[in-house]
Amino acid sequence: MTVSELMSATVQTVRPGAPAALVRERMRARGFHHMAVMEDGELLGVVSARDLARVGRRGPSAPLRLVKEFMSTPVVTVEPGASVHRAANRMRGQAVGCLLVVDAGRVVGIVTMSDLLKRVAEPPRQRVDRSATR
């Protein structure tokens, strides 16, 4: 199985100048945990719910902090044709919860640890033994 078969093609994005409070609200309202930080089509970083939690512990001015102050860089990416095994190893090796899927310099999707865990939790597919029908 390849990353393109598992990824979500809808990538939530935010600008680097957005305040933490806005990002937190968007994540809560839409039920996701990662956003690509982009400006003028360029991928600059990733912000996660974990990043927001760390910022939130920094006092009353935390909601006013800008994404560019706490986003994760460099962004760990993967190609759409990469195997799911390779993606899982990259996540584990880089200690990240998501990979942005990039094709020809363009963000085309996102694959998260949750996506990988759902795939592992699926029941195995039944193989049809075609030799028995011959």
Polypeptide structure, described:
The protein is an alpha/beta fold. Helix content is 35%, strand content 22%. It has helices at 3-6, 20-30, 49-56, 67-70, 84-94, 113-121; strands at 13-14, 34-39, 42-48, 77-78, 98-103, 106-112. The strands form 2 sheets. The protein has a 3-stranded mixed beta sheet with strand order 1-2-3. A 3-stranded mixed beta sheet has the order 4-5-6. The longest helix is centred in the N-terminal third of the chain and has 11 residues, at 20-30. The model has no long low-confidence stretch (mean pLDDT 88).
Keyphrases for this structure?
three-stranded mixed β-sheet, 134 residues, 6 helices, 6 strands, single chain, alpha/beta
Provide the fold topology.
Blueprint: H1 3-6, E1 13-14, H2 20-30, E2 34-39, E3 42-48, H3 49-56, H4 67-70, E4 77-78, H5 84-94, E5 98-103, E6 106-112, H6 113-121
Parallel strand pairs: 1-2, 4-5
Antiparallel strand pairs: 2-3, 5-6
